[in-house]
Amino acid sequence: MVEYIQIAWQGLVSGFAYALIGLALVMVYKTARILNFAAGTMAGISGFLAHWWAAEQDMPFGVAILFAMIMTGAGTYVVERLTVRPLVKLGDFLPIVIMTLGVEEFLANVSLLWWGGTARRYRVPGDIDRINWLIGDFRLNAWHLVVAITTFVTLSIVGYIINQTELGLGMKAFAEDQDAAKLMGIKESTVSIWTWVLSALVGGVTGIVFAPVLFLQQDYMNIIFIKGFVAAILGGFLSLSGGVAGGLLLGELEAFTIKWAPREFAAALPVVIVFIVLLIRPHGLFTREKGHERV
Amino acid sequence: MSGLIIKDLKVGYGRNEVIHGVDIRVNSGEKVALLGANGAGKSTVLKTISGLLTPTEGTITFNGDEIGGANPAALVDMGVIQVPEGRRVFPGLNVEDNLKVANYGKSPDLFEEGLETVYNKFPILQERRKQAAGLLSGGQQQMLSLSRAIIAKPKLLLIDEMSLGLAPLLVKEFYEQLGDLFSEDVTLLLVEQNAGLALKYCSRFYVLRNGELVLQSDSSDYIDDPTALQSAYLGVDA
Ligand SMILES: Nc1ncnc2c1ncn2[C@@H]1O[C@H](COP(=O)(O)OP(=O)(O)OP(=O)(O)O)[C@@H](O)[C@H]1O
Ligand SMILES: [Mg+2]
């Protein structure tokens, strides 16, 4: 029994990463109808920045994270204005998606130049990522608990912004009907940019909180990005809660596949899942056909 | 130079020009109808005034300010409010959130005030205020769409085919209510296919056919026999 709880917990922790990146992707897609292929790399850079400020500039751990988040937000703001905005005016979907691929490529190369190709350990205070508590036979890693709490807090903040603030209302209105939203006086460029920033901050949190788990490497968030993408597809790509649920589901499926099937199969699992879901439910597991799922 | 003045407007979608030079004038406080058959370009004209489309040629001024090609949000701030064709409520948002969107960027106090007015005029919306707007009936959605405009406090109101998909009796009721919903001095440009209704409410009208104006007149000239307009709509001699 404990063994299964252990596997389920492991799946949940990976699921948190997929859920957060899935959420970040759906957010931008839902409001702006843009697929952000740079999401994973952007998140990785947040992790690297936090590491750099703490380990190489001797900043306190928390301050380094704060700086990294500010940089993530500000950087995204600039990237949106410089690359996305001019293309939105042209009103075509594909050029923007290709532009995000270009941004991805650019950022990946910048980070490779800056940090090189070697893997590093992201150190956390007290090395608590190496502390494991035994509760009966259940092993709980202290950092995994931090991951869980961080995920919960992040999801709560996003939920609050979406459901309780004017920005959130604007995002929802925009997601439902762009022209009608414009006619209500909602500025497209304002909603768009804050959606991008919020999405990048969610990605940044993910990149930082999972850095100790994954080790910092130039492309350490790529795999999380792919799985976050799968999470978003599972959730129908138009539902924020669907994206989160899809991430958690994927995490569990993976964890239990590893238990019962060869490791190699677990790696292929996301592709298999996407294939099956698209066959059976092209609109995702958690979205109704018309895509008018609540946010 | 008060009111809405459109001069030699040309606009379209991509390279496809749909409006080929149209002049329309609505004096301050005046109620004017824009009539025409399916595809004549009525909605295109309204969408251009409200900023969703940018004119390729010509000018649009409202109370002396050039507004052609302005950002829709800036136009809303100026009091240019459109009630779009097909109602366009946000189906997944509840009724009250739909109304809240109409108050976007403005003070919450103003919203409370507007909300009270709206709920007074349409008590059913208050009853359903927590329900998703997509679940409302067509008539209730039209109430909601009009209510958003009430909350937005228009100076220039653009209403696009209020009658679309609604029972004739209900449409008649909406028209009878219009004067009560918005203040006297609101400048109104109303798009309709149903000439009979529009003529009763508006003092003047224009008829658009294939993106060009083919007739303009006082409503009183046709009010007894709106079917006579049919020929103007369709371009056949009656
Ligand atoms: N989004 C669009 N993209 C391309 N062409 C469009 C678009 N919307 C309308 N058109 C074209 O512009 C012309 C005018 O359409 P418009 O919607 O303005 O007509 P309308 O007078 O409002 O008609 P209706 O009474 O049916 O609403 C039509 O030929 C239509 O096909
Ligand atoms: Mg129309």
Index terms:
heterodimer; A: 295 residues; mainly alpha; two-stranded antiparallel sheet; 74% helix; disordered C terminus; B: 238 residues; alpha/beta; Rossmann fold; 6-stranded mixed β-sheet; 4-stranded antiparallel β-sheet; 9 helices; 34% helix; globular; binds adenosine-5'-triphosphate; binds magnesium ion
Structural class of chain A: mainly alpha
List the secondary-structure elements of chain A in sequence, H or E. Answer: HHHHEEHHHHHHHH
Largest sheet of chain A: 2 strands, antiparallel
Are there runs of chain B of 5+ residues with pLDDT below 50, and where?
A: none
* Helix-strand category of chain B: alpha/beta
CATH-defined architecture of chain B:
3-Layer(aba) Sandwich
Quote the average pLDDT of chain A. Answer: 91
Overall outline of chain B: globular
Tally of distinct domains of chain A: 1
